[in-house]
Amino acid sequence: MAFKKSPIDVIGDSIRQLHFCILFNHHQKMNAMNNKPTFRAALLAAVTLSMLSLSSCQKETPGNQDPGNNMPRLVSFRNGEEKMSFTYSADQSLRTVTVKSELVTGGEENVYTLSYRPDKKIDAFTAAGGNRIKLLWTNNDLTGAETWLGNQKVSVTDYEYLNGTLRSVFIKMVYGNNLVPFMKFSFTYNTAGNVGRLNTWTYNFLNGQLEFSGHADMEYDSNPNPFAGLKEVLKVFWQVATPNNVTRIIQYDPQGAQEDETVYTYTYNNRRQPVSAAVRTNLPGQAPVNSTAQFTYVQ
Question: Using CB atoms within 10 A of its CB, is residue 44 exposed (0-12), middle (13-18) or buried (19+)?
Fold first, then answer.
C-alpha cells in the first residue's frame, strides 16, 4: 500500500509552530505515497508535539486545571496565524479546544468538544461531523486512544508507563483488519522531571519496518509550564509531561549529526508564567528563522 503524502510530512517542517497533531485530519489527506517519510520531518513532528508539555508530578483530575496551585488558566496560545484556545465549564473542566493551523486544519478553525465519563475522566474528543478520538483508561492511567472517522476506526495509540511516568507512545494506523505501525516516541528524563531526550521511530512504507529516525535533546527554564493543568488532554496528542518550559532544542539525524537548533526566549508575568516567547530556529547554511508566540490567561 502506498501513499501520496506521508502523515509525517503533513505535520510540518517548522519546530517553532506549536500546534496539535490530530490524526484524523492527517488521515483524510493520505493517498498513494511511493517514497519513505523523511527522518527530519518525523523528528520535527515528535519535538513539536513534546513542546506543549505538562507537569507529570501533579495528580489533578484529567481535563481540569490543577486547583492546588490557584494559577490563572491558559485560554489561548498564538504564533502568527497558528492558534489554540480553550474554554472551561463552571467546575473548571475543559469544555472545548479550538485549533487553527495551516498544516493541521488547512487554515480552518476547528472546534473539538470534550465529553466525560461518570468518574470525570475524559471519554472522547468530538469534532464536526462526529469524527472523534475515544480514550481508553486502565485504572487512573490513559493507556490508549482510538481515532474514528464516523464509524471507521483509523488509528490506535498505545501509551506505556514506568513507575507512573510516560515512557513511550506508539501510534498505529488501521488498514482493513490490520494495524500498521506509524510512529513511536520514547522519552528519557532529567533529574528535574523534564524530558532530556526524545527518540523517534517512523514506519518505512517500502520495507515495512519501524526505523530509528533520530533524537532531540532539550533544555528548560525553572518556571511553571502554562499547559500544566491540561495534562491528560494534551497527552492524547502525543505530548509528554514536563514541569518547565523548553528553552533549547537540538535535533539530530539517525547517525547522530546535528540538523538544527531552536532557542526560546520567554517574557514572564509576576507568577513566572510565560506571556510571550521569541523563537529562533537556526538551520545549517541558512539565515535564522524568527517568530513570536503569545500566551493568554484568565483567573
Answer: buried
